[in-house]
Each structure stands twice: as structure tokens, then as C-alpha cells.
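Field log, afternoon session.

UNIT: design team B
ACTIVITY: writing a sequence onto a fixed backbone
BACKBONE:
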């Protein structure tokens, strides 16, 4: 068996450690931050995560599904809040399937505990990676001013969007793209009622869509919600920005005008806004994901994405599952072949989920309140119910299946073209919900285009 070094003890690094240790490898995990089980490293800047089908598949394969399920809340629908306080519930699927909300900090702590139960896993915190010898799989680290050198057979960079391992790989033949989107984010915590019950439906993703910006919230086990405000870094003619919504009066006015139903739910929303840090959102694309069969990237180190499909963690967990499957197929001593096949398989899917996540941002902040978009969802649900083998909506392909992200992206674009033709048909927008003749015409049209 091999000696494995994992740089990064976050969500992906901790799960990868479990996978590899269960195979008999000796695994050492080095994390630059303090142990999150002893200090809250996520305080004030967390976005709640959702575990979807791909994530559960990986967690199940690693033997930790039940340990994680115990800290999750099922979410079955989006619930939009308009400025007047009207609500509109849009289920995620026609068969009431759920994604599962989970606190980032709670999940990280749970997986570290599960990893530490394995005798061949050792966890090291406050260890910052300084350099990686790509030929010899040797890492130089700093531990509170002391230099530490660690030799291994294989090194995995699971150290996030600003990966030190990837930075070292970039000194060779390496293609790299880093894109900041115009929006930043701030956390807004929604408290539970005094008796611990939630103030909103915990089984919905709550969205306050405002076209160019939005607020969203996902439930926690304690009855509260982790909310996140996404807004442009700089104000535009269409939208306020974090640079203009500053100072107590401006913040109070902003929430009163844009989210009037939030202040009764979050009495200290102004104080939170002024106190919590403002964070940016970045997309990372790179190639190659491995070098010399000795060093490889996983998770955000390989494919950091924006959080609007809730798939960043799930994509990272799928990386781990694919790697484990390839070790089953090619053996635990054939790292050159395994890492080559892993990178070849996962790179196109990493690019695709980045594109899908940007697309879903437009949908969440804008389209979920658009009547034509909602009509399209009803039409798609009807076609799926009547012809499940021929039409699976894009969201279901991403969240409730193992269809590769790259294939889902291509199929989603094809669906767009079909639905554009459908919504242009005479009478569809005005009479779809009430006229069986129009419904039959639409069904024939869709089936003819598939």
C-alpha cells in the first residue's frame, strides 16, 4: 500500500482520506487552518451546502452516509419571496425528491471525526504548504514557524480555490484560468423562534430574487437558517452594490426597500451586515489535473465554481468516488494509470459544472420570478410525467442522476432550443394551463424535436 499526503483537510480532503484509508493506504492530511472541531473557522462567512445524489453516492461508497445524513435537513422546493411578501413554491421534481441542506462547518467536523476513527489516518492542523516536489511527491510545510518536510508516494491537492499544490504545478506546462464574477456575498443568519422551531418552512430553499441580486436561505438543524446575500461588488445602473450599501442608515434603507419581510425574521440584520465579512466568488479552470502520476488535484483545487447549483462539494465528492472506482479497476499500485484516467474523465465535467452554475445564478436571481420561466417548468414537468424516458429536466439531470455534467450541459442546451420553439407557438403562453388542445400540440411538438 502507498503513503498518501493530502494537502487540505476540508470537505473533499477529509472524504478522500476516508476513501484511501479504507483501501489500506497510510494517509496524512495537512490543513493550514486550525482544527474546525476546536474553533469556528467558518464564522460569519459560510454558505450552507446541499448534498445531492452524487454526493450521497460518494458518501455511501465511503461508508459515511448515515453519519452525514444525521446532520442534514431535506429540501424539496424553492420558495420565492417577492417585495410584497407573496410566496411561490416551485418543487425541484415532479416526484418530490429532495436535496439536503447541511452546515459546512458541521459537515467538515463530522467527516474529520470519521477519518480520525481510522487507524491509518493522521490529521495535522496549522500546517501551511510552502512547496511541492512534483517528481518525488515531497511537500514542504510551515507549522507555526517550523519547517516540516513530508515524503509520500502520492500527493493530492485538496486545498481549495487558491491551492498551494496547484500553484507549484503552474510553474510547468499548465493552462490556468481564474475568473471573478461581479457578485460578492455576505452571510445573514436567520434565528429560530424562542422555542427552537423555524420561522420559515425548513424544507424549502428560500429565495428573494431581485433580478440583479438576491438573498437566499437554507435550514439548519437548530431551527435557524443560514442566509446569504449575493450582490455586485460595485453598484450599477440596474443594481445596488456592496460599495454603495454602507453605513447603518443605508443598510437599513436597503433591507426595508428590497427585503421588507426579512427584518421581522432577523431583527439584527443591519448589525450582521455591518459585522460579517464580504467575500468574493471565483471560478477556476485548469489543465492538467495531475503530474507524473505522483501529484493530483481534487475538488476546488481543480475546479472551483460559484455556488449557485449547490454542486461544488458534490462535484468534489464525485471526484473522490471516480478515483476510488479507478483504483478498483486498475489496482492500488498503478497510480500513473489511475491518475491519468481520473484527470481525463473529470476535467470536462469540471468545466461543465462551472458553466451550469453560472447559468443557475441567472435562474435563481431572476427567472424564478418570471412567468414564462415558471410556465416552462410546468410544461417540462408535464412532458416528463407522460414520457419519463424521453425528457428529464436539466435540474434533475444535475441533482438527481449520475449523468456526467458535460452530457447534462449539452442536453440542457438542446432543451433550451426546443422550449424556445414551444413557447413561441400560438396560444401556449395564454392557454397552456386551460386548453387540452394546446397541451396536445405542445406534446407533439416536443416529441417531434427530441
Amino acid at each position: 500500500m502507498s503513503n498518501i499526503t493530502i494537502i487540505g483537510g476540508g470537505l473533499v480532503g477529509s472524504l478522500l482520506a476516508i476513501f484511501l484509508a479504507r483501501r489500506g493506504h497510510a494517509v496524512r492530511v495537512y490543513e493550514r487552518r486550525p482544527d474546525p472541531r476546536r474553533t469556528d473557522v467558518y464564522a460569519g462567512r459560510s454558505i450552507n451546502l446541499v448534498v445531492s445524489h452524487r454526493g450521497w453516492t460518494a458518501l455511501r461508497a465511503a461508508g459515511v452516509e448515515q453519519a452525514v445524513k444525521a446532520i442534514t435537513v431535506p429540501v424539496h422546493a424553492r420558495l420565492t419571496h417577492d417585495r410584497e411578501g407573496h410566496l411561490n413554491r416551485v418543487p425541484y421534481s415532479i416526484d418530490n425528491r429532495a436535496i439536503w441542506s447541511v452546515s459546512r462547518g458541521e459537515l467538515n467536523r463530522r467527516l474529520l471525526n470519521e477519518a480520525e476513527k481510522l487507524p491509518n489516518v493522521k490529521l495535522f492542523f496549522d500546517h501551511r504548504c510552502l512547496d511541492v516536489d512534483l517528481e518525488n511527491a515531497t511537500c514542504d510545510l510551515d507549522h507555526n514557524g517550523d519547517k516540516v518536510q513530508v515524503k509520500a508516494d502520492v500527493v493530492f491537492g485538496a486545498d481549495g480555490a487558491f491551492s498551494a499544490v496547484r500553484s507549484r504545478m503552474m510553474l510547468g506546462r499548465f493552462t490556468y484560468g481564474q475568473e471573478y464574477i461581479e457578485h460578492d456575498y455576505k452571510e445573514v443568519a436567520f434565528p429560530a423562534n424562542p422555542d427552537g422551531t423555524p420561522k420559515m418552512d425548513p424544507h424549502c430553499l428560500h429565495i428573494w430574487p431581485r433580478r440583479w441580486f438576491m438573498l437566499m436561505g437554507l435550514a439548519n438543524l437548530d431551527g435557524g437558517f443560514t442566509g446569504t446575500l449575493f450582490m455586485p461588488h460595485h453598484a450599477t445602473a440596474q443594481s445596488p452594490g456592496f460599495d454603495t450599501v454602507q453605513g447603518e442608515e443605508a443598510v437599513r434603507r436597503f433591507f426595508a426597500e428590497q427585503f421588507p419581510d426579512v427584518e421581522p425574521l432577523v431583527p439584527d440584520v443591519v448589525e450582521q451586515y455591518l459585522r460579517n465579512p464580504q467575500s468574493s466568488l471565483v471560478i477556476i479552470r485548469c489543465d492538467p489535473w495531475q503530474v507524473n502520476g505522483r501529484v493530483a488535484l481534487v475538488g476546488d483545487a481543480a475546479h472551483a465554481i460559484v455556488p449557485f447549483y449547490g454542486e461544488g462539494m458534490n462535484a468534489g465528492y464525485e471526484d473522490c468516488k471516480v478515483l476510488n472506482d479507478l483504483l478498483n479497476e486498475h489496482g492500488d499500485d498503478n497510480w500513473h494509470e489511475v491518475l491519468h484516467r481520473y484527470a481525463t474523465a473529470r476535467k470536462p465535467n469540471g468545466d461543465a459544472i462551472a458553466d451550469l452554475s453560472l447559468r443557475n445564478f441567472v435562474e435563481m436571481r431572476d427567472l424564478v420570478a418570471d412567468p414564462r420561466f415558471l410556465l416552462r417548468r410546468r410544461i417540462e414537468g408535464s412532458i416528463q410525467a407522460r414520457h419519463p424516458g424521453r425528457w428529464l429536466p436539466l435540474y434533475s439531470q444535475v441533482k438527481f442522476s449520475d449523468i456526467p455534467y458535460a452530457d447534462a450541459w449539452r442536453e440542457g442546451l438542446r432543451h433550451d432550443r426546443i422550449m424556445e420553439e414551444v413557447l413561441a407557438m400560438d396560444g401556449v403562453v395564454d392557454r397552456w394551463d386551460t386548453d387540452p388542445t394546446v397541451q396536445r400540440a405542445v406534446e407533439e411538438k416536443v416529441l417531434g424535436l427530441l
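LOG NOTE: The chain has a mean pLDDT of 94.
NEXT ACTIVITY: expression trials, pending approval
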